[in-house]
From TrEMBL:
<keyword id="KW-0812">Transmembrane</keyword>
<keyword id="KW-1133">Transmembrane helix</keyword>
<protein>
    <submittedName>
        <fullName>Uncharacterized protein</fullName>
    </submittedName>
</protein>
<keyword id="KW-0472">Membrane</keyword>
<keyword id="KW-0732">Signal</keyword>
<feature type="transmembrane region" description="Helical">
    <location>
        <begin position="56"/>
        <end position="75"/>
    </location>
</feature>
<feature type="signal peptide">
    <location>
        <begin position="1"/>
        <end position="28"/>
    </location>
</feature>
Amino acid sequence: MKAIKKYLYLFSLALSLFLVVAPQQELAAQCPMCRMSAESDLKSGGTKAKGLNNGILYMLILPYILMGTIGFIWYRNQRQVGQQQQFKDLRLLLEPLD
């Protein structure tokens, strides 16, 4: 069981590193028409390009918020289960033997 956890941890670490180090040019690719429209709007003093960038940031941050929330709930539940198990073990040690 520990070997599976170790391999899962290593896989998730490798995947995270790959996504961080992945070629930025390909990740930043976007529709040329949208890009030209946003650039011309920004040059003319419009705010549509800023709104587009904010929308992209909101879409990018949502998965991180969801995964962080799920991870926090999982961690809290695992901690409570561990504390309950320690309490049961302590009760067994302190009970008088018949």
